[in-house]
Amino acid sequence: MRMEKGAECTTLLKQCQRKFPPLKLIIMSASLDARLFSEYFGGARAVHVEGRQHHVDVFYTLHAETDYVDAALITIFQIHLEEGPGDILVFLTGQEEIEGVERLVQEQLQKLPEERQKLLTVPIFSSLPSEKQMRVFMPAPAGYRKVILATNIAETSVTIPGIKFVIDPGFVKARSYDPVKGMESLIIIPTSKAQALQRSGRAGREGPGKCFRLYPEHEFEKLEDSTKPEIKRCNLSNVILQLKALGIDDIIGFDFLEKPSRAAIQKSLEQLFLLGALTDDCKLSDPVGHQMARLPLDPIYSKALILASQFNCLEEMLIAVSMLSVESIFYNPREKSAEVHAYQLLLICF
């Protein structure tokens, strides 16, 4: 009986192979460690496609800068006053830095002769309203130079026309997870070599360009080759929950492409157990664990929604989870901060 079933399976497999072509999995990335992926998938072929990029001159500082924001400001005006036509792209770490530099640029412009004040600042970051983000793609008025103040969203996510000069302070804001404290945070860290190369490449999309790295050349050699994978710096609870739902119980021994720390795995298993998603023998619980695995949310929020229906407050919990699942739904421009503080004080008084 077993032999008959085995023969039937073999015949069915051969029929499927004749009917369907072999499945091809193509993984593409601008800054991927191709060697690692190739080795993981059994020596899969890696194809490197060179982009159409013009020559970019890269300049370094002689000494390390104590204040990269101030150095970026100085470099903006050096380019504006000494270099030929072309827009400037400045990489900064977040909204606060971008708005600070934008304000400083406007202040310094007022000190220049009127004919030298033709510099237009345009910010772009994730929480900026979409209609304001689109301003970066609009050409500058005749006779003006555009300076774009951006986060790492401009590294690979968008290609902005007109860029000939890039200013790279060499820092980026990245998510980090401390498994001991069980807390996630955003911290400012040095970029990787792959990120630095991506940034400099922005200057050579339409013609020869220049990249000004605000750190010495020997510091570039000390950078990591590629960005640290997010699986090594985030909470693994949702990843482990999905693996459990797929029937993979040996999480510690699972063959991750980039294996996270044992402490991070244990902390996430502990959290899932406390939430009731896992049983005493580390199996997915029924029905809570299976319900949580079906929701594309952080396990804490999944459990909150499941319990909310029992307490007849599902609508209110959906609103709370929606608010907590995004970085921020509010855009608070710097020029309105005084009004916001006054409103907050008014609420406290009443």
Detailed description of the structure:
- With 350 residues, the protein is of the alpha/beta class.
- The chain folds into 3 domains: 2-40, no CATH class; 56-228, P-loop containing nucleotide triphosphate hydrolases (Rossmann fold, 3-Layer(aba) Sandwich); 231-324, Up-down Bundle (Four Helix Bundle (Hemerythrin (Met), subunit A)), CATH 1.20.120.1080.
- Helix content is 41%, strand content 14%.
- It is built from 14 helices and 8 strands.
- The protein has helices at 2-19, 34-40, 68-82, 95-109, 130-133, 153-156, 193-201, 217-222, 237-245, 262-274, 288-294, 299-310, 314-324, 337-349, and strands at residues 56-60, 87-91, 119-124, 145-150, 163-168, 171-178, 183-190, 209-213.
- A 6-stranded parallel β-sheet has the order 1-8-5-2-4-3, sandwiched between helices.
- Strand 3, helix 5 and strand 4 (145-150) form a beta-alpha-beta unit.
- Helix 9 packs across helix 10, helix 9 (237-245) crosses helix 11 and helix 11 packs across helix 12.
- The chain starts with a helix and ends with a helix.
- Residues 1-6 have low confidence and may be disordered.
- GO terms for molecular function: ATP binding; double-stranded RNA binding; hydrolase activity; RNA helicase activity.
- One of its GO terms (cellular component) is nucleolus.
- Keywords: ATP-binding, Helicase, Hydrolase, mRNA processing, mRNA splicing, Nucleotide-binding, Spliceosome.
- Its EC number is 3.6.4.13.
- This is RNA helicase.
